[in-house]
Amino acid sequence: MKLVVDASVAIKWMIDEEDSELADRLLDEGHDFLAPELIVAEMISAAWKQCRRGSIGNAQYDHIVIRVVDGPITYRPLRPLATRAAALARDLDHPIYDCFYLALAEAENLPMITADRRLVATLDGTPLAGRVQPLG
């Protein structure tokens, strides 16, 4: 099954944190993952923050960068998603970053998996609520 996955889930594949085992289960289930290219910057930024804090070492940081580039996600370009993502950000009053994932899920007619509780709460009661599934 194809799924749109956001950085809040994908980073759990690389850094042990709350609900990492749930994210790992998605990998074990053999799904095909899609994400906007934005996820590359988001995941490397999250890893950099962990490295900067000393939560992970340089070797793990370098390994994460390699996995982000060569990992299990198929990336989609941002430009074709930008108009819809911008409209979603405006209409939902929600950050554009998450809206790129939503726009991709709509465009591909796929479910989106997220660990972002704020996003799930924002979508509650909207037509997009059924498209987004919380991790776990």
- End-to-end separation in angstroms reads 17 Å
CATH topology: Rossmann fold
User: Can you tell me the residue ranges where pLDDT is under 50 for at least 5 consecutive residues?
Assistant: none
Radius of gyration: 15 Å
Verbal overview:
This protein has 136 residues and is of the alpha/beta class. The protein has a single domain (2-134), classed as 3-Layer(aba) Sandwich (Rossmann fold), CATH 3.40.50.1010. Helix content is 56%, strand content 14%. The chain is built from seven helices and five strands; from the N terminus they run E-H-H-E-H-H-E-H-H-E-H-E. Strands 3-2-1-4-5 form a five-stranded parallel β-sheet, sandwiched between helices. Helix 5 packs across helix 6. The radius of gyration is 15 Å and the shape is globular. The two termini are 17 Å apart.
Quickly list its features.
alpha/beta, Rossmann fold, five-stranded parallel beta sheet, 56% helix
Summarize it.
By secondary structure, this protein is α/β, with parallel strands linked by helices.
Helices and strands in order:
Layout: E1 2-5, H1 7-10, H2 20-28, E2 32-36, H3 38-53, H4 58-70, E3 73-76, H5 79-92, H6 96-108, E4 112-114, H7 117-123, E5 132-134
Parallel strand pairs: 1-2, 1-4, 2-3, 4-5
